Amino acid sequence: MDQTTHQSAFGQLVTGPPGAGKTTYCHGMSQFLTALGRPVAIINLDPAVPNPPYPCALSITDLITLDQVQEEYGLGPNGAMLYCIEYLEANFDWLVEGLDSVLEAQGGNGYVIFDTPGQAELWTNHDSLKRIFQRLGKLDYRLAAVHLTDAHSISDASKYISAVLLALRAMLQLELPHINILSKIDTIGGMGELPFNLDYYTEVQDLGYLLQTLNDEPRAKKFRKLNAAMCELIEEFSLVGFETLAVEDKASMMKIVRLVDKVTGYIFMPSGSGTNEENLHALFSSASGLMPGDPYPDVLDVQERWADRREEYDKKQDEDWEREWAMRKQAEAMTKAAEGRAGGADGVAPAGGDGMEGLERTPAGTSA
């Protein structure tokens, strides 16, 4: 395949076990990037989902579906899922042609998000998905793997160790720039009191403390040596760390976007406003990790936001939204009024008015 004849793009490969929030993340990220003015397309690679809840630019179900494979070959859902991904690998040209069509519609400045199935084998020890994205990499697709883990796993020592091992295996298997995320972090307030602060779990600190907690569980006592070996393995690699994410929180989403942009080398300036100097500033800001105005510069601020003082933060956020909405409505009204006055100056004043329609009149000293 001649790579010079094909489109290329930046993007994300979204992985994670069932229930981690991959579909919600893909939909939310698409909406967020669209709001920033960045062209984005979601590619569905789950053959079990013919109608995903997000706007899908390309879907594997147009090529093959899980139901078709199960019916034709008598396979169970796991075997059928592996067959579908192997079939996609065998029909790689179909995927590239579909991506070319999608990216051409975006004007050659494309950004793609790949939504994958929740079956762990696909990104832990089965090679088809890995080979597909290696081939895309050779076509100059600059992708980062975004691995989601439900934040609820930190409430249980055994679940947390399993989640870290799964994240580690995904990192070693996919061989892509990798970001691990604790999703649904806004739910930690309902988990009760955690044995350690949130930074202990995001930084995967000394697991010896957690190992003691794990060994105190009746069901885990007989696995003491295995537990110790797993903790030792994680610490020897020392690769896993987690970011936090609440999809509906703007600051949280922006932080993830900045991190993905940093590891892929993406430089983004809104259309029409990107001078060379501004783009250089965007590059070095991304590379240095600067994020002016970040309300959660430290993970303990995230814990304070979603666990310790959530009601207080929610109230302030509602007030900020109301203030922003009022300012936006006032600005729209003032723009309408200015347009009305401009029309009057050209001898085309709106009939029956003074050019101030839509601008709410308020007492002096108050704002609309």
Automatic annotation (TrEMBL):
Q: Name one GO molecular function term.
A: GTPase activity
Cross-referenced CDD domains? GPN2 (cd17871)
Instruction: Write the record's keywords in alphabetical order, separated by commas.
Output: GTP-binding, Hydrolase, Nucleotide-binding
- Matching InterPro entries: Gpn (IPR004130), Gpn2 (IPR030231), P-loop_NTPase (IPR027417)
Record's Gene Ontology CC terms? cytoplasm
Concerning SUPFAM superfamilies, the annotation shows: P-loop containing nucleoside triphosphate hydrolases
Quote the biased-composition stretches of kind Gly residues, using this chain's numbering: 341-356
* N-terminal signal peptide: none
Q: Where is this region: Disordered?
A: 332-368
Q: Which residues form a coiled coil?
A: none
- Specify the domain of life of the species encoding this protein: Eukaryota
Q: Which family does it belong to?
A: Belongs to the GPN-loop GTPase family.
Subunit: Binds to RNA polymerase II (RNAPII).
Q: What function does this protein fulfil?
A: Small GTPase required for proper localization of RNA polymerase II and III (RNAPII and RNAPIII). May act at an RNAP assembly step prior to nuclear import.
| Name of this chain's protein | GPN-loop GTPase 2
- Natural source organism: Apiotrichum porosum
What taxonomic lineage is listed for the species of origin?
Eukaryota, Fungi, Dikarya, Basidiomycota, Agaricomycotina
